[in-house]
Amino acid sequence: MAVQVLTPITRIEGHLSIKTEVINGKLTNVQSCGEMYRGFENIMIDRRPIDAARIMQRICGVCHEVHGIAAARALAKLYKIELPKNGKLLHDIILGIHIIHDHILHFYHLSAPDYVDFVALASYPGNDPALKDAKEWVKTVKPALFAQKVPGDYISEPANALPFIVHYVEALELLGLAASALAILGGKTPFCHTIFPGGITTEITMEKLAKISDIVDKIHSFVVTKYLPDVMSIAKLYPEYWKIGAGYQNAICYGGFNSLDKPLFTSGVIIDGKQAPFDKNKIIEDIAHSYYKGSAQSFSTGETKPDYDKSGAYSWIKSPRYDGHPMETGPLSRIYVNYDKDDRLSKIMSELKQPKEALFSTLGRHLSRAFEALILGEFVQNALSTVNINEPTIRDIDMSIVVSDTGLGLSNAGRGELLHFIETKNGRVSRYNCIVPSTWNFSPKDSAGKPGPVEKALEDTPVRFEKGMIEAGRVIRSYDPCLACSIH
Ligand code: NFE
Q1: What is the pLDDT of residue 146?
Q2: Which residue, judged by its Cα, is nearest atom 2 of ligand 1?
Q3: Who contacts 222 (Cβ-Cβ below 8 Å, separation ≥6)?
Q4: Minimum-distance ligand 1 atom for the alpha carbon of 481
Q5: Which pLDDT value is given to residue 63?
Q6: Does 318 have pLDDT greater than 80?
Q7: Mean local confidence (pLDDT), 437-445
Q8: Residue 382 · residue 204 · CB < 8 Å
Q9: Where does residue 40 rank: exposed (0-12), middle (13-18), buried (19+ CB within 10 A)?
């Protein structure tokens, strides 16, 4: 059969196309293509190092703060400063609130439409003004806006579909609240301007902490009473997706959220079913099928030189590999590496009658994300109550020092593990390298011919509905793709 191209893929960030054949009703020879180049690493060259904490946030319209924190962590290493306790806590609080917010957005606004028929809104019996308005639109004004364009097996029975739609609208309100909590700490959001290598410049008061804590409480209660149960409902209604989209079942976790007594995530990797310690020196970026000049590079020597006509290239995404292995990163990788730390997830998996290994699946990614939102909410509340308003929130760096050195920031983002590396000569940036979660997941084949994690996960996906390939969309979106980040 001829190659089919899924493009544009909607309800993701950025420009991804998937090329595939369908043979015997299954996806075959899948290629993940990042369709544009941006060049943020090169924008940093010759600038002052501190610019990274501002400029690199602009890599993404979704995960701005995470790049600010990762850049700040790389800069803290470059300037060899230790953050005060409050600085570490406040960086983690910003990161935590941002990631919870990202997970809720991903499930309700980007993924739920893969499963739920929003025309069920026409039967909404309640009095919520926003939903009543939307109901009128479905019934009279723009029914086509709400109708599913891609054929599929959607939840259309109003009694089953309406809870997701009601929560979709409720979640919008919470995203606004989360943004206001981030703005209290970050000065504004998106693109917090208070994030610095030594902490944050915001003055912290009890009143500010109480406001943020109140917002986090509201969001956490939504996660506990709606988000996690809704993901479990999807899992019960679509059990075949425990077996679709497994991929390599390799996972990478850098560790993170270390500002309280015990780290929330300990670092580690899973390769061929075995857990091993994480070693940053095993990370390389292969570019055999990416539109860049050169060959495989370590994060500390990597360069980004576009080669628009490169033979054999089919993506602007590079191919990060760990000890030669394609690795999945994301909430799933963090949760899987740390599975034994919290028995609540194994209880949920027992209730869903699934073994731990089933987490490597389309449903497992959604469940890991919701579970991560739960434990991050608890972490953020603990961290907020640990901030001491009588102590500094930041350690200043002396920007008059002319640094010639390197700094590595290993950090976390909503979509997985995030690396920023900076090298300076005579006080100016000579190299900047980011290895971003969606770069790991959506990478093309490497020089050994191994497909990237999502390419592998899509291979053999059954296609019941050819037009639009809903099954492929479900697997792709389970990774929460951000192509803007991946091609940075
Ligand atoms: Ni553009 Fe991002 C996150 C980063 S990318 S969304 O999370 O880093 O995969």
Answers
A1: 80
A2: 63
A3: 104, 167, 170, 171, 174
A4: 9
A5: 93
A6: yes
A7: 98
A8: no
A9: buried
| Contact (CB, 8 A) for 361 and 243 | yes
Give yes or no for residue 68 CB within 6 A of ligand 1. no
pLDDT in tens, 254-296: 999 999 999 999 999 999 999 999 999 999 999 999 999 999 9
Cβ of 13 closer than 6 Å to ligand 1, yes or no, is yes
Ligand 1 atom at shortest distance from the alpha carbon of 418: 8
Residue extents of the structural domains in the chain: 4-486
Find the 279 Cα to ligand 1 centroid distance in Å. Answer: 22
What band does 1 get if pLDDT is binned at 50, 70 and 90? low
Around Cβ 268, how many Cβ atoms within 10 Å? 19
Render pLDDT for 93-145 as a digit per residue (tens, 0 to 9): 999 999 999 999 999 999 999 999 999 989 899 998 888 888 888 888 777 87
pLDDT at res. 138: 85
- Note the pLDDT of residue 133: 86
Does the CB atom of residue 16 touch ligand 1 within 6 A? no
The rounded distance, in Å, linking the Cα atoms of 81 and 72 is 11
The contacts of residue 148 (CB under 8 Å, 6+ apart) are 113, 117, 118, 119, 154
- For position 354, what pLDDT does the model report? 98
* Closest approach atom of ligand 1 to CA 415: 7
∠ CA 384-386-392, nearest 5°, is 95
Please state the atom number of ligand 1 nearest to the C-alpha of residue 67: 8
For the segment 152-176, the average pLDDT, to the nearest whole number, is 95
Closest of 14, 18, 16 to residue 6, by C-alpha: 18
Mutate to test the pocket of ligand 1, among 97, 418, 441, 476 (most ligand atoms within 8 A of CB): 418
Given CATH 1.10.645.10, say whether it is the number of domain 4-486: yes
**Which pair of tokens denotes residue 169?**
């609208």
Say if residues 16 and 2 touch (Cβ distance below 8 Å): no
Does the CB atom of residue 62 touch ligand 1 within 6 A?
A: yes
Q: How far is the CA of 442 from the centre of ligand 1 (A)?
A: 12
pTM exceeds 0.90: yes
Tell me, using a 6 A CB cutoff, whether residue 435 lines ligand 1. no
438, 454, 478, 488: residue to mutate for ligand 1 pocket, most atoms within 8 A of CB: 438
Would you state the pLDDT for residue 302? Answer: 86
Indicate whether 31 pLDDT > 80: yes
Ligand 1 near 95 CB (within 6 A): no
Given a cut of 70, is residue 372 above it in pLDDT?
yes
Q: How far is the CA of 205 from the centre of ligand 1 (A)?
A: 31
Q: Which atom of ligand 1 is nearest to the CA of 60?
A: 1
Cα 119 to ligand 1 centre (Å)? 31
What the block records as the tokens of 110 is 């980007």
